[in-house]
Amino acid sequence: MNQPSKQDIVQQLRTRILAMQGINKPGNDHCSIGLGDIEKAFPEGIFPKNAIHEFTSHEPESAAATSGFLSCLLHSLMNRKGFCLWVSSRRMIFPPALKLLGINPECVIFVDLQNDKDVLWVVEEGLRCSALVAVVGELKELTFAQSRRLQLTIEESNVTGFIHRVLPKSENTTACAARWKISPLSGIIEPGLPGIGFPRWRVELAKVKNGRPGTWELGWTPTGFEHFSKTSSKTDNTEGAAQYA
Fold this sequence. Notes:
Blueprint: H1 6-20, E1 52-57, H2 60-78, E2 83-88, E3 108-112, H3 116-127, E4 132-139, H4 144-157, E5 160-166, E6 178-188, E7 198-208, E8 214-221, E9 224-233, H5 237-244
Parallel strand pairs: 1-5, 1-6, 2-3, 2-4, 4-5
Antiparallel strand pairs: 6-7, 7-8, 8-9
Helix pairs in contact: 3-4
């Protein structure tokens, strides 16, 4: 009887640990969402859908760009079906504009509240609902304990969670699977057409749990994400995991 190699044993242990953390559990949908090389930055090259993703914006311009990028992610996750919950105390999205990104506004449930405490409560309740594809929460601060509670919540529902922290005081440690930073770039101009073109972003994965941080340029057209040259990427998984702590 052949004995498993050390590499096989390590891979099996890594898979079990990720499953225990609620990331890439067996039986989950592992289809690509169109992010190309960015998806390879995650463990086993799979975008973790049953996890919390943290986005941080320190300027209004970055916050607006992040909202646009999040909308495009929702388009890929919803795949023209399903529903999403978007919770905020300072909404920046103009719902009719979602049609330009291929999303039916009536498929997004917007909840506008007075403070971040209420936003966090509604986000947690939304993450319990397996009928939703994703939940977006816009708030300012998120503690480690709060993020851990959200991650534990979705381990049964498998709903994807996005927390957009707008103008946070600091980038404290959280239990989120990844920390994203989105910056606006000049648009994709179609030859012979006026206007500012289609959106383009600098997408940075600042921290990835058990993955590889990096920076890419990504755009959006009616056919989906458009990939440009990669700016940088770290290839050492151990270093990437350490940076997350």
